[in-house]
Structures are given as structure tokens and as C-alpha cells.
Amino acid sequence: MAAPSELQLYPSVIHPAIQKYWDEFCELPAETLSAFSSYYPDILRAFAVSDFLALNILREPELVLSFLQSSQHQKECQLVDFRAPLAEELSGALKEDDLLRILRLFRRRMMFRIIWRDLVCLVDYQVTTREVSWLAETCIDEALSWIYRDMSQQFGEPHSTAGVKQQLVVLAMGKLGANELNVSSDIDLIFTFPERGETQGGNRSLDNQAFFTRLGQRLIQALDNTTADGFVFRVDMRLRPYGQSGALALSFAAMEAYYQEQGRDWERYAMIKARAVAGDIDAGEELLTSLKPFVYRKYIDFGAVQALRAMKEMIEREVQRKGQDGNIKVGRGGIREIEFIVQVFQLMRGGRDVRLQQRNLLSTLECLEDEGLLPVAAAAELREAYIFLRNLEHAIQGLEDKQTQEIPKDEEGRERVAVAMGFPGWGACRVQLDKYRDCVSEHFADIIAERREAPLERPDTIEWKALWAGRLAQDEAQDLLLRSGCDQAQEIYEAVTQLRQSSRVQHMQLQGKERLDEFMPNLLQSLAQSRASHETCRRLLALVEAVLRRSAYLALLNENPGALTELIRLFAESAWIARQIVTTPLLLDELLHSGSLYTPPDTTALRDELRQQMLRIPNDDLEEQMEALRYFKKAHVLRVAASDLRETLPLMKVSDYLTFIAETIIEQVVDEAWETMVKKYGEPGYEDAALNDMRFAVIGYGKLGGIEMSYGSDLDLVFLHGASGDLSTSGETSIANQVFFTRLGQRIIHLLTTKTASGDIYEVDMRLRPSGNSGLLVSSVSAFQQYQEKSAWTWEHQALVRSRAVAGCPGIRAEFEKVRKDILTQHRDPAKLRTEVMDMREKMHASLGTKPDSSGSPPYFDLKHDRGGIVDIEFMVQYAALRWANEYPQIVVWSDNIRILEALGDAGVFSQEDADKLCDIYRLLRAHGHRLALQNLPARIQTDELLEERRWVVAFWEKVFAE
């Protein structure tokens, strides 16, 4: 059967897609086709605008026909229209498989109805978002009720210590909280409960925390897990206190304490839309009322502008990094900018004007207009733009029922989106989109965006343009370079000429070539004026070559002359930094923000920044998570290196920050790995059923453990767990605890070490675990303790001196620290200890020390391994710690060499003068090592350098190990 004549109403580029679905549709029985005949125009439109609708029509034609004949597509639903039918269907669910199947089929039916009405009937977007929100709310609440009843049969019902019955409260954040959920969106939830206590009336009792955690886990699985019937909603729990490392469910008291003591500005922003959607709704709303002082300040909070500005800046960096200019949510002039405009007024003035304490954006926008906080015209323009962008968002997502805000890259996809929006084609739609985005961007700049200085007018660059274009003779070009302050004119001229004549430059596309022709004169002039060497020029030209096919970076430098100045300075001072930026040009973005470039954030800010970045990545997008972690590390290590070069950070702070970066990443990786494993296998079984936290910890050894990391340090790690190996996990696919923790450890290593296009994050060395490479990847704390007491070699106890817990469960970390203290403070035979430490040092020196050259003398001094170097000092520290910690346990409180040396001086083991001298030399040697690392050079110096210090260390070694 030929397609109806209405096919000609659609752009020709999408005819093949419509025809394909139409041909399959025509294979339905004649009786079915006849029943559909009066709906052919709508069916054709559905095929044109949505693969999701088309596939459901072909999969379940009878259901779709019933939907159309009952006129459900012509009327709005109320909340009861979702709740009543789902509650009835679930009343017959006898087991969890029934629950999962019913939820998914119900979601599919209702989502078909909603998307049909949105894209075929073109209903108001607010109707669509309200109905999607009601669907989600219904699925959450009904699933929670079913699982609660099921668990109560086994454990009884939770009660407070005063005997009051308790229920879980599910808080919806973001779009769901505001009843503004998209047609294909995940749901951001937080689980909480009123009071601590325990269950009553079941076969065995659980404390409330454990009960509600298990309840929450099962609820997530019921909604999020993908089965043969699909999923219900993707669930994101990362907005809860402490993020992925936090407890899945917290009491009201713990929630209030967290937000009062540790709440961040971006969490205030997130809490604006929070709403209780399931469980004890009344109690949930009482909790949110108690949290309002955290969100809305009594004074006019001008600091909110800067906080949102920082959030927007972070998002802009990600948009640039990921090339998301076509993203209508986070891109320029997108939905997020409108949200920020509205929410900055809410955060600033909501404490003084309760009318602004609303969840719905358009309602709040109306209040801002009424209160005179936004001009009438601006409010109208923002409202119109917001509605357009939200409708466009639905059109994009409705194509395949996928959570995306990216304009389709292919022509067919764009045309289908335009049709869904009611336009004759993408051209007309794009004109309207650009108009709205320009308008939003203008208003955002007026209200929130930080004013940036216009690029400085450069002096006349005619000569430099002529040099780059090859219009100057060689002697003229070299004379220009010399006159401008460059004393290696010939080498630079030859390098520039070679680049200009290269095939890669000759075959550049027009836009890229124009950007290069604008950039190169500026670069050459800046190089000459900074008296840059040929080596600096070579490094910068390597960068230019690296970005020839990604000329947006050249545009960035053209528009930001200050960034070019910083670039030349850093490339001149550090070969290592130059190499980092050449291999990862995305780091150029860091140069735009000189304030943060030379002031690395503290540990709290580091964790906060990484958490915000990871929150914007879907839970199941492992590739993007890994890329984000790699960029985070590189960007922050670059900041440390820049500060190191400028000497705004002393040596110890450099190592501190490099260590903080590693710890922050490890914490995030552990949380990501744990969440993935628990989702797949359930939580490990514990002999104490009340335990429900991670019970896993990462121990750092070596440079990480000693808080002494350098730019190229790897991670020496040991993994410990606190669960019985005889028990198994709680998931449907259950595995033994030991298998679970082994796979968890493997996944952590995989996330840290897998090489992507951006490289790895860190190299990981696990050889310091009990029994080394032949031992278990993850040991229990008790097995670790037994090994250290009965089997460990002296060198392993030396390594333990520089160890500390860096991530994971606080309880397991505390257990490790106790084991460490007990082992290090044991009494040891001094003579045996002395012999074993000296023997190990001799072996290391024989293996790693510098060998004499043909003249019989060493050609250089290895800062780390040669006599009088870093390892000698570390061995003396470890020997003294093991020798004297039994008598002076304060010696091993810390794991870093400097503080151990200070403790040895305070205890009188070393004289104060000797301890101070060793600290000074240790810092000096490490500072030389850092400087060499920043030049991509090995840790070696000339044999006549630092002679006095090296000889002093050798002499002190003899004194320490004298019999």
C-alpha cells in the first residue's frame, strides 16, 4: 500500500525513514490496517518525528489502536490517572519479577501516550513535563510501597527508639522536584528517614539505617535495572550528602547536620527544587522546611552570583572540552543559563521574599517580573525562549527516547526535529533557535556573567604578518627577529618556515588557515618580545602542529592575548608543562583563568569540583567518566606545576597538592567502582547484619603514603576489606565476598590505569600487598595483621612506616591505622634490624646506583639512589622509626619523612640540630628533583653539585649505623 499523500508535506530528506516504517506498518493484518485508516495522518507524523513512537506502533499495534480509539490522546491526565491503574496492576504482583515487569510495561504504555501527545498533538510542554513527573512519582511511590511490604514480612517495620513507626522519605531533586521532568530524563533522588531505631515484628531485627539502605537499594534496582522489558527510570543518587561515598539513606538529624556544617553553594542551588515524592510525604516536607535557612539566607546574598558564575564557568569549560556547542541545555544561550538567571534571584533574595521560594521556573519568573526584579520585556523574552528550548529538548529526546540535549549531527535527524517543532524544515527552526539563544545569552551576560576585558589592541603587526606569509627575505626576517630581542633568529626563522611550508598547513581548511594566519604573527611578535629561546619556539610550534586540525584552540588564543602570554612563559620555563599541553591541548583552557592557575584549590574544593563534574556525566557513561578523571588530574597537576615555577608554593605544599589530587581521584574511583559492583552483585554479606557501609579501604604506600608525590609518581596501593570470606553478596547474581572484593580491586585498578586517548590516570603498583604479586589482590584486615605479625620481612615493615589509609570506609581505615601502630611499635632486636636494613640498602645501591664509566668514576649523581641521596635519608628515617617507636610511639604517628624526622628530634633519638639538617637536605634534594622533572629530565646532577650536603648525609649514615 502506497504511503498517503500527506507524505509530501514532509521534507524529502526524511521520506526514506517514513517510508521504511510505513512499509512495515502495511504488513499488519488488513483488518488492523482498516481500523487504523482514520488515523493515517497521525501515524505518518509519528513515523516522521519519533523512532520511539514508530517502534511501539509496530510492536504493539492493538494497544496503540485501543489508545487512539479511546480518545486518551485527546485529554489531560491527573495524578490519580497514573496512580490508580498502577496500584491495581501491582496488587497482583506476588514476587519481585512481577513488580519489575509490571512497572516497565506500565512505563512504556504511559510514555507512549505522553510522547504521542507531545509530538503528534503538540500539547503545551508544561502538560508534558507535569505528566512525565507524575508518571515517575507514581512508579517510585508504588514500587517503594511494594518493596516496603515485602521487607517488613522478613524484618518487621522500622520504629524510632520511642516506638513511633518510621517510613523512608524519597526526595526528588532537579526537574522531577519541580514537576518539570523531560520525556527522557533520569531522576535525581535522595533517601532519608526521620529517626534512628530498629525494626519490630519480623523474624530478625535490623537497625533503621540498615533497613532503609536495603529498601533504597531494592527501589533503585526496581526502577533502574534494564530487563527484557526495558527500564523504568534511570536513577541518580549522587546529589545525596557526601555523594557516592555517603550513606544511601540518612536520618533527618544527619541531613540537617550535613547541610548546616558542610553544605556547598551548588547544593543550595540543587535544593531549590527539592520535593518529597514518595514514602512519608508530610515528614519529608517538614525536613525541607527545616533546611530552608540553608537554601535561602535572611540577608540579600550577593555571594550567590559569584557561586553560580563559578558553576557556569565550570560548565562552559566542559562544553568547550567536549565540543558541545550544539547542546541546547548547557551550551551558550541554553536552558541552563535561563535556570541560572532565575535561581540567582532566588538564592539572593529568597530569604527575604518567600514568593521566590518556588520550585517551578516559569512561576518564579512571573514573580520576578511582578516584584520588578526583572524588566517586563526581559521576563517575556526569557519565558518565550525557555518554552521554545524545552519543546526543542522534547523533540530531540522523543526521537529515540534518549536523554540528550544535543542537536542531531545528521541532516535527517535535524529535519525530523524541525518537523516535530512545527517548522517546514531545519533552516527555519535554526533561525528561531539562534534568535532565542542570542537573546538568552545577552540577558545572562547582563545579570550574571563576569565582564571580561576586550582583547588589547596589539601594535602594528604588518611586518610579523609578512614574516609568517613568507614575504620577507631571510635576512629581513632574521633582522626583524634580532631587532625585537630574539638572539637565535636564524633557528627560529628556519623552524617557522618549515612549519609554513609543511603539507599539513598547506592542506588546512579555510577557517583553520585563517585562524592560523591570525595567530602566527601574534605568536612570533610575542616570542621575540619575551626574548624566547629557540627551544621555547620549538615547543610552541609543536603545539601549533598539534592543533592544526582543531583550530578552535587557535581561536581561543587569538581572543585571549593574556592566555598567550601565560603560554609562552610556561613553555619557556618547563619542558614538562609544554609536553602536557601539546599532548592535551584542552589544557589551554586553564590559561584563561590565571587566578586559579596559580592558586591550586584545597582538598575540600578539589573534592567538590570533581564531584560536580562527575554529577554531570550519566552513571552508565564509563568512557566519559574516565575522560573526566584524566582531565581533572592533568588540569590540577598543571596548576601545581605553574605555581611551583612561579614559587607561589613551597616544595612541601607542591607535594601536598599532588598527593591531594591523587587522593581525590582515588576516592572518586573507589566510589564509582563500588557502586557498579553493588549494582551488579549486591552488597557483601556481613556477620553483623547491621553493617551496611563499604567495609573496604585503600592504603597508600611510598610517595602517596608519605604525602611526597612528585609529577611523575605512580601509586603504591594495598586494598583491605572487613567482611567474612565465608559469606556472599546480597544481589540476584550472588558471589562470594572474596570474589566481590577481588573484582572490586581489579575494577579500581582498571579505572586508574587503562590507557585511553588521553592516557592513563596513574600507574598502580600492588607489589607491597601481603605476599606481593603471589598474594590475594584484596586482603581482610585480620589477614593483613596476621601477615605483618608473622610473615612480613623487615623491608615490608620499612614500607609500612610510609603508609596510611587514603580512601574508603572510615571503620576499616581506623582498623588499619591500629594495625600499623601495633606493628611499628613492636620491640625489635637492634642488631638484627640494623643488619637487615643495611643489607637491603646495599642490594638497592648495587641494583640502582650509578655505575662508573670508562674513567672509573660515576658520570653523574643520582639524587635518589646514590650514596648521600634521598634513599639514604629515607632508610635512616625508617630504621630509626622501627628501632625507637617501641619506646617513643609518637615517632610513627605520621607517615611523611619530615614529620618523622621532627619527631625523632623531639624524642632525642637524633639531636635537634641533626634532625633539622636532615630535613633541610631532604627538602633540597627533592626540590632539585622537582625542578628536573619539570624539564623532563632524570633526577641526576653533576658529580660536583651539592657535595657538602651529600658528604654530610654519608657521614651521618655511618654515625646512625655504627655498631
Give the overall shape, derived from the CA principal axes.
globular
Number of helices: 42
Distance between the termini: 102 Å
> pLDDT below 50 for ≥5 consecutive residues: which ranges?
451-457
CATH architectural designation of the largest domain = 2-Layer Sandwich
Percent helix range: 55-70%
Largest sheet: 5 strands, mixed
Number of domains: 5
Structural class: alpha/beta
Average pLDDT figure: 90
| Text of the CATH class of the largest domain | Alpha Beta
CATH topology of the largest domain: Beta Polymerase, domain 2
Radius of gyration: 33 Å
CATH superfamily annotation of the largest domain: Beta Polymerase, domain 2
Strand percent estimate: 5-15%
> How many E strands?
14
Tell me what you see in this structure.
- With 963 residues, this protein is an alpha/beta fold.
- The protein folds into 5 domains: 225 residues, Beta Polymerase, domain 2, CATH 3.30.460.10; 143 residues, Nucleotidyltransferases  domain 2 (Four Helix Bundle (Hemerythrin (Met), subunit A), Up-down Bundle); 131 residues, Four Helix Bundle (Hemerythrin (Met), subunit A), CATH 1.20.120; 203 residues, Beta Polymerase, domain 2; 131 residues, Four Helix Bundle (Hemerythrin (Met), subunit A), CATH 1.20.120.
- It is built from 42 helices and 14 strands.
- The strands form 4 sheets. Strands 2, 3, 5, 6 and 7 form a 5-stranded mixed β-sheet that branches.
- β9, α34 and β10 form a beta-alpha-beta unit.
